[in-house]
Design goal:
By secondary structure, this protein is of the alpha/beta class. The chain has helices at 10-22, 33-42, 59-68, 84-92, 105-115, and strands spanning 2-6, 26-30, 47-50, 53-54, 57-58, 75-79, 97-100.
Length: 117
């Protein structure tokens, strides 16, 4: 599976990317939404792992833009925003799942399998 990780925290991005690769998937990792948008135009991904607070914008707005383009690529939000309203906004915005940081990487793997069924 080709996975795009959109995460600006280097420690988290590195850990998530290494874990996803260890699970047997290919990973592209970007630190900002501009790079993520460019990559999505150039390559087909099977899954996007998306942070919400990024240096160049809000991941939720980015998610809504993707869904407006009728892109059905599964997207799992990974964020420290842990309020019920945040989770609800993410799901209403088109996310397939929502993980609150910190999370166990094995739970991420399980959720990745679920959204790819």
């Amino acid at each position: 599976m080709n996975v795009l990780v959109v995460e600006d925290n280097v420690d988290i991005g590195d850990a998530v990317s290494a874990h996803v690769v260890a699970d047997g998937h290919r990973v592209d990792w970007c630190l900002c939404l501009k790079d993520a948008a460019r990559r999505l135009m150039l390559k087909k991904y099977d899954l996007v792992l998306l942070d919400l607070r990024l240096p160049d914008g809000n991941g939720l707005s980015f998610l809504r833009d993707i869904r407006r383009e009728d892109d059905k690529t599964p997207i799992i939000i990974m964020t420290a925003q842990d309020q019920y309203s945040d989770r609800l906004a993410g799901m209403k915005g088109g996310a397939d799942d929502f993980l609150v940081k910190p999370f166990d990487l094995n739970e991420l793997s399980a959720r990745m399998r679920l959204v790819r069924v």
